Amino acid sequence: MLELNLLLVFMVVGAIIAVENHNLLSSVIAVGAVGFGLCVVFLLLGAPDLAITQLVVEILALVILIRATIAKTVPETYKGRELLAYGVTIIFVLVFGAFSYFALKYLPEFGAPLMKVSKTYLEEGLKKTGALNLVAAIILDFRGYDTLGEASILFTAVIGTLAILRLKGRKQEKETDELDS
Amino acid sequence: MSLIVKTVTRVTIGIIFLFGGYIVAHGHLTPGGGFAGGVILALAYVLYVLAYGEKETRERLSMKWASIIESLGGLLFLFLAVLGLAGGYFFLNVLPKGTPGDIFSAGIIPLCNLAIMFKVGAGLFAVFLVLVTFRVAARKEEEE
């Protein structure tokens, strides 16, 4: 439990550094530190599936962030409205904190889940699907619809990226088709 | 990139591919699965882009083929889901289960992992390629 709390503090500090830093590269590295901290948290809580996925996605996201966006000149955020922004933020944080305080009281204790539906998964998952990895059994058999939705989300994201960043429409006439192949 | 990076990439890229394939093929037995394995395969190509540049990567896996593979993966996943209708309802595990622990077991789950691998790997690779291309094109515009 102590190492979990330490990791959470580490992640919060990393997130604050990422937001407050003015150097873009340092911010990206701080975001990466938060992601790898989350990976270790998953591992400590006994979720190696999630830890593997978090690790590889974090690496890919870091590479994309550094390689594809870091060289862009980011325009300075406008100044002069800081008082209003801070006020709105504080009010939102207070409202959100109050709501979550009352909502979180109804959650079960940490590490003591309700286990109503998932008990059936654990008991009959191997018999019904034949898969030793119960996570695969759940996401691809019991909850196949969710995975289908997730796949279509990724599909939509790829289509959106290809549509927004395509180069055909904004190409000059003298340029050749080197980017189309 | 320098010669060291290129050589190390050439040596390690096969191992990365093997590891990604292992994660996918054993997705129903050990932690992992189609999503993680697909991202690892995409990372192998991303490493190739970083070391050799995007033009040489396009000769091996062009944007068009990445799109085609991604769509085929999605269609395969949907086909496996519709296959369940033969036994009664959507996403029913109709194929024989086999003995638990074997690599050919668990019905449609390994095939679903395979479909998701194609989808995720090719899709993320296409996104990375588009972002890198966009940056190169933007830099060219600035230079002109």
Short description:
By secondary structure, chain A is mostly helical. Chain A contains seven helices and no strands. Chain A has two domains: 1-73, no CATH class; 109-168, no CATH class.
Helix-strand makeup class of chain A: mainly alpha
Give helix % range of chain B.
over 70%
What number of domains of chain B? 1
Any idea what the radius of gyration of chain A is?
Answer: 22 Å
Tally of helical segments of chain A: 7
In total, how many domains does the architecture of chain A comprise?
A: 2
- Major β-sheet annotation of chain A: none
- Distance between the amino and carboxyl termini of chain A: 53 Å
Measured by residues with Cβ under 8 Å of the partner chain's Cβ, the largest interface is: A-B, 48 and 59 residues
Percent of residues in beta strands of chain B: under 5%
Unreliable runs of chain A, pLDDT <50, ≥5 residues?
none
- Per DSSP E runs of 2 or more residues, the count of β-strands of chain B stands at 0
Structure description:
The complex is a heterodimer of chains A (181) and B (144). With 181 residues, chain A is an all-alpha fold. Chain A folds into two domains: 1-73, no CATH class; 109-168, no CATH class. Chain A contains seven helices and no strands. Chain A has helices at residues 2-20, 24-44, 48-69, 82-104, 117-129, 134-142, 144-164. In chain A, helix 2 packs antiparallel against helix 3 and helix 6 crosses helix 7 (144-164). Chain B has one domain. Chain B is elongated and about 60 Å long. Chain B is mainly alpha-helical. The mean pLDDT of chain B is 82. The two termini of chain B are 24 Å apart. In chain B, helix 1 (3-25) packs antiparallel against helix 2, helix 2 packs across helix 3 and helix 2 (34-52) runs parallel beside helix 5 (109-143). Chains A and B meet through helix 3, helix 5, helix 6 and helix 7 of A and helix 2, helix 4 and helix 5 of B.
